[in-house]
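Progress note, sequence design subtask.
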C-alpha cells in the first residue's frame, strides 16, 4: 500500500507504529485538539484513561499518545504506539497484532460517542484546552510569532495548531462526533519502525488498520508551498508587561521542498540564522550584544520563513538594521567556504540524530510522504552536499520581507 512505510532498525528494544491523519488548517482545528484528548479518555472496551493505562502496562509498558502537529498547510493528527519487540518479551510473544487492534479500538470505538458518556469529562477537556491556549499566550515569544503569522498571511497557514479559545464555546458532543466521523474518512498514512525482518508480513498486519483502507485515499494532498501574503501588514508595536522585548519577523522564502531550490534554502537558513554557528547569532548577539536570543527558521512545506529574537525594546531598530545587513551580505555572497562547510556538518548531524528517536524519524518521513515527496534521509544529505555557493546566493535573493511584530515593555519613567 502506498500509504504504509517501514523503517528497519535494531537500535531499540521497542517497535513503534505512527499513524498520521492530515487535517486542513481551514477546518475546526480547535475541535480536533479537543477530540484528540477525548479519544484518549477511554474506548468501548477500555472505559477510562485508567483502564487504557492498565492495558498498556499489560503490554510490557507500551507507550501511547495522540499528538497534533502543524505541518505546512495541514494539521497532523498522530496516533502513536510503542511496544516491546518479541526479542525481549517474557514468552517471545509478538505484540504487533495487539498494538494494531488497540489503535483500531481508539479510532473506531471511542467512549465519548456512547450515550452514557460522562459529560463532565467533555467539560474538563474544554477547560483543559482553554488553559493550555492561555499558557501558550503567556509565552510572549510564542505569542509574538503567532501575531506576525496572523498579520502577514492571508491563508490557512496563519492559524495556530492549537486553535482559538473563542471556538471552544461551540464544541458540543454532537459537533465533536461529526469531527470524529470526518476524521475517519480522511487519507491516513502509517510508518512502522523497529526490528522488522519480514517487511511484507508487517505491512500485511498494518493493512488491518481500518482507516488506512477506508479513508478517501484518492484525495490529493498536494501543495506547491505557495502562500497568500498580506504585503500591507507593515510593522506592529504592541505593549505588555514583559521583562524582555520580543521581535518576530515574517518572510516569504520563495522556496520550499516542492521546488528545486529546497536544498539551497536549507543551507542558506543554517548559515544565516540556524544556530550558534550562524551570522545572526554571532553578529547580533555575540558581536553587538543586542539580543538575548536570535534565530531564523522556515517551514519547508509552506515556504514561510521567520526570525525570532529576544531584544531590549529600545534596540528594535538597531537589530532590524543588522538583520537587513546580514541578509544583504548573503545576497552578495559575503560568506565563506568554512561557513558553508560548518552549515553542512550541522544539518547532516541533525538528520543523523533523528535515528536516535523512532518518533522523530517516522514523523520526518511521514510528512514527506503525505505531501508526495519521495526523499529519503540519504537523498537529503546528498542534496545538501550538492548545493553550490551560487545557489545559496540565488535563494538569498528571493527572500522577501513581509511583516514584523514587536512586543515591548511598558515604560515606567523617563530613565527606563
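Output:
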Amino acid at each position: 500500500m502506498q500509504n504504509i512505510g517501514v523503517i528497519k532498525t535494531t537500535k531499540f528494544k521497542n517497535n513503534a507504529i505512527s499513524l498520521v491523519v492530515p487535517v486542513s488548517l481551514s477546518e475546526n482545528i480547535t475541535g480536533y485538539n479537543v477530540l484528540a484528548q477525548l479519544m484518549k479518555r477511554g474506548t468501548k472496551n477500555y472505559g477510562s484513561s485508567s483502564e487504557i493505562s492498565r492495558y498498556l502496562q499489560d503490554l510490557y509498558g507500551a507507550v501511547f499518545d495522540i499528538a497534533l502537529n502543524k505541518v505546512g498547510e495541514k494539521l497532523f493528527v498522530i496516533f502513536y504506539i510503542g511496544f516491546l519487540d518479541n526479542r525481549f518479551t517474557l514468552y517471545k510473544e509478538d505484540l504487533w497484532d495487539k498494538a494494531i487492534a488497540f489503535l483500531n479500538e481508539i479510532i473506531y470505538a471511542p467512549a465519548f460517542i456512547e450515550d452514557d458518556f460522562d459529560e463532565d469529562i467533555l467539560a474538563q477537556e474544554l477547560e483543559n484546552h482553554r488553559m493550555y491556549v492561555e499558557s501558550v499566550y503567556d509565552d510572549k515569544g510564542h505569542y509574538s510569532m503567532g501575531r506576525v503569522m496572523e498579520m502577514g498571511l492571508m491563508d490557512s497557514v496563519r492559524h495556530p495548531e492549537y486553535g482559538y479559545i473563542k471556538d471552544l464555546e461551540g464544541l458540543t458532543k454532537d459537533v465533536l462526533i461529526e469531527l470524529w466521523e470526518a476524521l475517519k474518512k480522511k487519507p491516513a498514512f502509517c510508518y512502522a519502525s523497529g526490528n522488522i525482518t519480514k517487511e511484507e508480513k508487517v505491512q500485511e498486519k498494518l493493512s488491518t488498520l481500518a482507516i488506512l483502507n477506508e479513508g478517501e485515499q484518492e484525495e490529493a494532498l498536494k501543495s506547491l508551498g505557495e502562500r497568500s501574503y498580506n504585503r500591507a501588514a507593515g510593522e506592529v508595536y504592541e505593549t505588555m508587561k514583559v521583562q524582555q522585548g520580543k521581535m518576530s519577523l515574517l518572510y516569504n522564502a520563495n522556496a520550499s521542498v516542492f521546488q528545486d531550490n529546497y536544498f539551497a534554502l536549507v543551507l542558506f537558513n543554517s548559515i544565516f540564522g540556524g544556530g550558534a554557528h550562524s551570522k545572526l547569532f554571532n553578529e547580533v548577539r555575540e558581536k553587538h550584544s543586542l539580543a538575548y536570543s536570535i534565530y531564523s527558521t522556515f517551514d519547508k512545506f509552506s515556504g514561510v520563513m521567520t526570525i525570532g529574537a529576544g531584544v531590549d525594546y529600545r534596540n528594535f531598530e538597531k537589530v532590524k538594521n543588522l538583520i537587513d545587513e546580514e541578509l544583504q551580505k548573503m545576497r552578495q555572497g559575503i560568506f565563506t567556504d568554512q561557513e558553508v562547510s560548518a552549515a553542512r556538518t550541522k544539518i547532516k548531524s541533525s538528520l543523523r540524530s533523528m535515528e536516535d528517536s523512532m518518533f522523530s524519524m517516522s514523523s520526518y518521513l511521514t510528512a514527506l510522504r503525505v505531501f508526495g515527496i519521495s526523499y529519503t534521509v540519504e537523498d537529503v544529505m546528498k542534496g545538501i552536499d550538492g548545493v553550490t555557493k551560487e545557489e545559496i546566493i540565488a535563494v538569498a535573493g528571493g527572500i522577501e520581507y513581509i511583516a514584523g511584530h514587536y512586543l515591548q515593555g511598558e515604560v515606567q519613567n523617563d530613565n527606563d
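The radius of gyration is 23 Å. Work on this subtask will continue into the next period as scheduled.
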